[in-house]
From TrEMBL:
It comes from the Eukaryota. PANTHER family: PROTEIN HID1 (PTHR21575). InterPro entries: Hid-1/Ecm30 (IPR026705). GO terms for cellular component: Golgi medial cisterna; Golgi trans cisterna; membrane. It holds the Pfam family Hid1. The lineage of its organism: Eukaryota, Metazoa, Ecdysozoa, Arthropoda, Chelicerata. This is Protein HID1. It comes from Araneus ventricosus (Orbweaver spider).
Length: 509
């Protein structure tokens, strides 16, 4: 009953905010504190109690109140970061501010006149809080800096160190976040203790960062190239002192995740997995950050001058140790093969569903770090990449909504097929029992590749036709290294040649 009353109070505050036509004073803390008090306990509450229509109405009818709400929420987050955020009240306030901004930001981005709002300055900043140009720090930079600080806040998102007394940092600015990387792996050997609540808090903050980065989605395509995403630009620049530990934390959390664990049947039904939501949003954040290369093209005179480089791309390209490559590749293949796991008891093993993000991430790594790609090609685990890709290509071939998944899978195989080692590895016998609707055969991984490609070309969605030449090119690339083909694959290959030269597809094959 008490929880219902607090939600009702929050709802009343929302109604009061959206119905008032007169600006509400920013100094009225009693009113504004209602939005980040303990009235709500989850992001779902915030999304339910603040309907989209009311946010748009607030934006159109009371823009000053919406602006003040955003200012106050960012101000609370900055204050939380300055005060270590080590009490329950401070942590709850910070989380509710994060949830509130996650809810509001998309409706700010969808209106072109509001897109520059977060790049204005916080009102009332003192002179000593200015940047090098003597101007106040934009609201967006204050927000990102505070969120990055909170991602390495002891007892909130990371476990506190064992230091005590005067050695304890007095604020988050003095913390060396490289000592608080979330997971062992690349560049970090220590395995931190796992606290589920920390995972939940990290997830909520990362979702807000991802929401901030989504501004590009609301811009016309003609403007995207001319206006780099300044949120990501700042997040991945040297101005963000947490760039390296953040990149390492995100990478290690993704690659160290094992959804099966000790293999106890139905463990995902008995226990709540706090790590999976974190891994999914961390993977998405990595992809989005790596997708924005702010370096100036060599021969493009129209590009904006003086853009800082993307440190995430820089760090990824500099990974070079074999043990790091092994860690990344094993983590990637473990997650990519997870949906293919077969057990005697149906649904007894946890299955993750972010294979499309994994494939995009793999493409990014191969694109920015050629040493990693060559490591994959010389490793026997390259077939652990091939089989799940073929599985997803076959599974998505007739689904128009998954055309993008097919594209990225084909492009990865096209990239790998250009190397001799990939073709040689295809001669390994295929003994797995992956559930695919293809003819039964006894042969090698090359047979599997040809049979799946035949299935895509003959029964795939018509929007996949531009990829047919790529599929045939892959076969051409690997053909010099194949030692044998099964009867089934040989028949399919002959049919592909017939289709290629006659332009007619005989589905009876």
């Amino acid at each position: 009953m008490g929880n219902t009353d607090t939600k009702l109070n929050f709802r009343k505050a929302v109604i009061q905010l959206t119905t008032k036509t007169q600006p509400i004073e920013a100094k009225d803390d009693v009113f504004w504190d209602q939005f980040w008090s303990e009235s709500v306990q989850s992001a779902q509450d915030v999304f339910t109690l603040i309907p989209a229509a009311e946010i748009r109405a607030l934006r159109e009818e009371s823009p000053s109140n919406l602006a003040t709400l955003c200012y106050k929420a960012v101000e609370k987050l900055v204050t939380a970061a300055d005060n270590l955020c080590n009490t329950h009240v401070q942590q709850q306030t910070a989380l509710n501010c994060v949830r509130l901004l996650t809810r509001i930001l998309p409706y700010i981005f969808e209106e072109s006149d509001w897109r520059g709002f977060f790049w204005s300055s916080l009102p009332g900043k003192s002179g000593d809080e200015t940047d090098s140009e003597g101007e106040n720090m934009p609201l967006s930079q204050s927000l990102i800096s505070a969120l990055c600080d909170l991602l390495f806040c002891p007892d909130f998102t990371v476990s506190a160190g064992k230091k005590s007394g005067p050695d304890n940092p007095e604020d988050l600015q003095s913390i060396d976040s490289c000592e608080y990387i979330w997971e062992a792996g690349v560049g970090f050997a220590h395995t931190p203790s796992h606290v589920p609540q920390h995972d939940y808090n990290r997830t909520e903050i990362l979702k807000l960062l991802l929401t901030c980065f989504s501004q590009t989605m609301y811009m016309p395509a003609s403007e995207v190239h001319l206006n780099p995403n300044k949120w990501i630009q700042y997040f991945t620049s040297a101005d963000n002192r947490h760039a390296l530990p953040l990149f390492t934390s995100l990478l290690n959390v993704v690659c160290a995740y094992d959804p099966v664990g000790y293999g106890v049947p139905f463990n995902h039904l008995l226990f709540t997995d706090s790590r999976e939501p974190l891994v999914e949003v961390a993977l998405q954040l990595l992809i989005v950050s790596l997708d924005h290369d702010f370096r100036e093209p060599a021969n493009d005179d129209t590009s904006e001058k003086g853009l800082p480089s993307n440190l995430f791309i820089n760090y990824l390209s500099r990974v070079h140790r074999e043990e790091d490559f092994s860690f990344i590749l094993k983590g990637f293949t473990r997650l990519l093969n997870n949906p293919l796991i077969q057990t005697y008891i149906p649904n007894s093993t946890k299955k993750v569903q972010f294979h499309q993000e994994l494939l995009i991430f793999f493409w990014k790594i191969c694109d920015y770090n050629k040493k990693f790609m060559f490591y994959v090609l010389k490793s026997s685990e390259v077939l652990e990449v091939l089989v799940p890709i073929l599985y997803h290509l076959n599974d998505a071939r007739a689904d128009q909504s998954r055309v993008g998944l097919v594209h990225i899978g084909v492009f990865i195989l096209l990239l790998l097929s250009g190397e001799r080692n990939f073709g040689v590895r295809l001669n390994k016998p295929y003994t797995a029992s992956v559930p695919m609707d293809i003819p039964v055969f006894t042969g090698t991984h090359a047979d599997l590749l040809i049979i799946v490609f035949h299935k895509i070309i003959t029964t795939g969605h018509q929007r996949l036709q531009p990829l047919f030449d790529c599929l045939l090119t892959i076969i051409v690339n690997v053909s010099p290294y194949l030692k044998t083909l099964s009867m089934v694959a040989s028949t399919k290959l002959l049919h592909l040649l017939e289709v290629r030269y006659t332009g007619q597809v005989n589905l009876c094959m």
